[in-house]
Every structure is written in C-alpha cells, then in structure tokens.
Amino acid sequence: MPFVTTTDGVEIFYKDWGPKDAQPIVFHHGWPLSSDDWDTQMLFFVQNGYRVVAHDRRGHGRSAQVPDGHDMDHYAADAFAVAEALDLWNAVHIGHSTGGGEVARYVAKHGEPAGRVAKAVLVSAVPPIMLKTEAYPGGLPIGAFDGLRQALAASRAQFFLDLPTGPFYGFNRDGVAVQEGVIRNWWRQGMMGSAKAHYEGIKAFSETDQTEDLKAISVPTLVLHGEDDQIVPIDNAARLSVKLLQNGSLKTYPGFSHGMLTINADVLNQDLLAFVQG
C-alpha cells in the first residue's frame, strides 16, 4: 500500500487517483474516520478529470498507530508531507469537520507559504473553535467533550455505533430514512484506528483556537455547513469562520446534518465542483 513517511517517522497511508498532470483535489477526513469517507467525492472528481488525493490521519485508518502527535500542528505537517511527496501544486484542499481544522492549519502554515494552494473548502468544519471560551462564548462547554471522552473510554465500539446511528447523519430526526450501510461504514472506519489517537483527537478538534489560521488564509475559501448540524453547531462555526477569512464565502443548507457529504452527496458534489471550476 502507498505510504509517505513524515519527518518524525510516521507512515501515512494515502490514495492518489487520476491523471498526475491534472489539478489535484486533496481531501481531509473527519474524526474518527479515514480517507474512505471521501469515496463518493473522490469518484465524482476523478470522473470529472481531476487528480484526487486523500490520506488517513496519523492514528486513523491504515496510517501508523503512533502514540504521539495527535494535534492540529502534526495533522497539518503530515498533510504537507503528503503534498511534498506527491509534488502537489495548485491544489484545492477540502476538509470535513476535524479535517476542516486540518485544512485551515495546513493552508495557513504550510500550503500558502509554499505556494501550493489554489483554493480551500471547509465543510461542517470545527474552526474557529468548538469549546466555549471568553473569546467565543457561543461554544460548547468542556463537559460536552468530557462526555465524548468518557463514552469512548467506556466502550469505543458502542460509542462508534451510537454516534452515526443518531446525530451524526441526523438519523434521529423525524422523517429521515436511516441508512444501515452508512452506519456500518462509519463504525468500520472508526474501529480501524487507534483508541488513543481518537481519545486525544477530541482535544485537538474541540480546544484548538484557529482564529489566526483563518485570518491568515488569503486564497478563495468556501465554507459549507448544514443548518441542522448536531455535532458542530453552525452558529459558532461556519458563521464565525467566514467573517475571519480574507476571501471567504458561506453556503448553508436547511435541514442538512453533519454528515451531509454522505447523505446529500448529490447536492454537495455539484456545489464543490462549481467552486473548484469557478
């Protein structure tokens, strides 16, 4: 299987499909999943002539289950290692949830300074910060994230079944058709990864203040968010992020869930394509 080795010796699994001379679209997955969560988008974009790349975050999927480095700085540095190894230029980076935080840190600290990024997309993304702080009083209390840690430590397998069955895809809403295959695929991806990486990743996605990352990004950046996102509430996320971006635009979706890229791929893929081509 294809791997890139980072500067601190971590093997990162990646997928690289499509013509090597085509514009690359780089996908950054959410917690606690893997690059497999982008299957629908990768197939769609490769069929539209793009080179598509996605990697498994350290400790997730098929990447090495290392004990350390489960934070946004390492996530972004690992993504840069992939971009350098595959010689990716003029790339569009698309991140979902925690992957949106990874994209923000990557573009601000690595991608733009190296001149490798054309555009960015933050989908259902965690920036600027999920945790309630003095600067962001609309965030969630620390108890919400402590609860995630407790549930994961008590029974990761059950927790990783309950989350996609309920709020992640909005399957707990009246009138929403439950998709058993989607739930099982979420569970499968989660259980491939390291419990320690997932446990420590909760702090990374909830407590990392990415205000300065967002302010530093100058490339065109599209922010997409479901208005019924029960995992990353829209008001303290997308609606604040777009105000911090130099060149940002916001599109929201009434009734769409945190997992809208999967459940509503027909809509999201077309909007992503329009932005990439625009």
Automatic annotation (TrEMBL):
Alphabetical UniProt keywords: Hydrolase
Recorded superkingdom: Bacteria
GO molecular function: hydrolase activity
Protein family membership: Belongs to the AB hydrolase superfamily. Bacterial non-heme haloperoxidase / perhydrolase family.
The protein, known as: Alpha/beta hydrolase
Domain AB hydrolase-1: 24-258
Source organism: Endosaccharibacter trunci
InterPro entries, sorted: AB_hydrolase (IPR050471), AB_hydrolase_1 (IPR000073), AB_hydrolase_fold (IPR029058), Epox_hydrolase-like (IPR000639)
Keyword Hydrolase carried by entry: yes
